[in-house]
Amino acid sequence: MATRKKEVNFEGAMERLEEIVSKMENHELSLEESIKIFQEGIELVAACNKKLDEAERKISVIMKNAEGKLIEGDFEPQEE
Amino acid sequence: MTVSYINTYIKNIIEDDIQLNNVSVKGEISNFKYHSSGHMYFTLKDKNAKIKCVMFKTYGYFLKFRPEDGMNVIINGNVSVYERDGQYQLYCNKMDPEGIGSLYLAFEQLKKRLQIEGLFEENRKKRLPLCPKRVGVATSSTGSVIKDIINVASRRYSNVNIVLYPVKVQGEGSAESIVEAIEYFNKINDVDVIIVGRGGGSIEELWSFNEEIVARAIYNSKIPVISAVGHETDFTISDFVADIRASTPSHAAEIAIPSYNDLKYRIGSINSSLISILRSKLINNRLSLKTLVHTMESKSPRNSIAQTMQYLDIMQNRIVHSMESRLLKQRSKFELQVEKLEGINPLKILSRGYAVVEKNHAIVREIKVLESGDNVKLNMQGGFADCKVIKITEGSLWQQGKKK
Predict the structure, then answer these.
(1) How far is B147 from chain A (nearest CA, A)?
(2) B159: closest CA among A57, A2, A46?
(3) How distant is the alpha carbon of residue B363 from its chain centre?
(4) pLDDT at B397 over 50
(5) Contact status of B188 with chain A (Cβ, < 8 Å)
(6) How do beta strands B356-359 and B362-363 pair?
(7) Does the distance separating the beta carbons of B129 and A7 come in below 8 Å?
(8) Which of B31-35, B261-265, B395-399 has the lowest mean pLDDT?
(9) Lowest mean pLDDT among A2-6, B18-22, B91-95, B115-119
(10) Of chain A residues 40-79, which have a CB less than 8 A from chain B?
(11) Largest Cα–Cα distance in chain A?
């Protein structure tokens, strides 16, 4: 479930970022509040960049091992 | 002769007839009953006549579509007799819809049924994740589908993980293996999105993607499913149930996997916006502060007093100034009057040589009042003289002069 949670965070983070920009543009906030959510925004930007750049490329295939259990292994594209 | 005997006799006659052993009959279905045993009983009719039919479970198993009353079909089978009832019947081993292919009919029937059930509802469809980390693919391990997906993924976002669950994409057991793949991803392997698909083919080859079990597996999947079956123009039941339909496997990969560059750009531009908005806010605030300080200083008590004092000074000057000029005006007015007065001062006239003539204490204004011998008083500068008139001559002094 770890990857699922990460995924929700990325999308949620992007949405929150756009919300922050919109709030700051609207002049609703005091200077103090603006600085506060600006900081939140900068942190989210760093987190999103990190998520995009982490993880390594992996192509795997599910197959049955000797005991008939399903395992994940590296995939090599075969010719037809 | 018994009834059994006659019925058996008739049956033998019919079964011996070569023609009746293999017939192809066209007609309309009516009174269709699907028995709990799995056998189907119905009547086949045309305008003028009808015949009783039965299709046993073993043959019915191969039917792709569901026969219905009113359907026009072509039956292949043989005629025989149900001895118990003395009923001759058409024993059906193959049934095809008249006019259209049976597969196509089956497709239409299932599509309608699932649609009514609500499996295709738009509001039920799941949103795809913006940036999936793991993409599950249910397709053949050979063939171009998986290759295309890997190529597109490498191009757009090379860090994405692709997990392939190899399935049979056609033939016996195909639908079951597709269901297996979807259920595997849902239960054991945590992927963020599933792509289900295969390359182009005929309706028979694509058929497993029209099977009800596949449709239900897609519907029940908690993970979003993208259906990419066949070519642009092929539509299967999977396409309708899936959360998104892609026209090709490459297209599916493009839908599932975001462009790394696009996301980076989007994050970067949000970052720039944040900084520039805050900067302009700070600048505005600094300006406001300046204005505020200025306003405060101008409104401060010390400033008020200074202002007031300056004001008083100015007022004082003005008052003094105006008083001075008024005085000046008054003086010159006064001097003018004095000048005027002096001008008409009778005493001043005397100094110029004029005399005031008095006779009997009355001022003499004209010559006619006087007679020679009168006593007159001449008032002039410095005193007066008592005089006596010697001679009176009328006319102006100046004229006298001229007359001479």
Answers:
(1) 7
(2) A57
(3) 115
(4) yes
(5) yes
(6) antiparallel
(7) yes
(8) B395-399
(9) A2-6
(10) 41-42, 45, 48-49, 51-63, 70, 72, 75, 77-79
(11) 66
The beta-carbon neighbor of A55 closest among B133, B164, B274 is B133
Q: Are B18 and B7 in contact (CB under 8 A)?
A: no
The two tokens of residue B384 are 């007066």
- Exposure string over B9-26, b if 16+ CB within 10 A, otherwise e: eebeeeeeeeebeeeebe
Query: Is A17 part of the contact surface with chain B (CB cutoff 8 Å)?
Result: yes
Between residues B65 and B399, the one the model is more confident about = B65
Name the pTM for this structure. Answer: 0.65
Q: Which residues of A touch B159 (CB under 8 A)?
A: 52-57
Q: How far apart are CA B238 and CA B210, in angstroms?
A: 6
Q: Tokens 């259209």 identify what position?
A: B100
H, E, C per residue of B294-322: HHHHHHCHHHHHHHHHHHHHHHHHHHHHH
Q: Which of B172, B196, B173, B169 is nearest to B183 (CA)?
A: B196
Q: Residue B273: its chain A contacts at CB < 8 A?
A: 21, 25
What contacts B118, CB < 8 A, 6 or more positions away?
B124
The residue assigned the tokens 């219905």 is B68
Percent of the residues in chain B that have a pLDDT greater than 70, as a whole number: 98
Q: Which helix (H) or strand (E) holds B198?
A: strand B193-198
Return the residue of A nearest to B273 by Cα.
Answer: A21
Question: Left, alpha or beta for B221 (phi > 0: left; psi -120 to 50: alpha)?
Answer: beta
- Mutation site for B-interface testing, chosen from A4, A10, A31, A33 by largest number of B Cβ within 10 Å: A4
For chain B, what percentages of helix, strand and coil (3-state, to nearest 5) are there? 50, 20, 30
| Chain B residue whose CA is closest to A80 | B142
Alpha-carbon gap, residue A22 to B184, rounded angstroms: 42
CB of B198 within 8 A of CB of B140? yes
The sign of the torsion formed by the CA atoms of B181, B185, B189, B192 equals positive
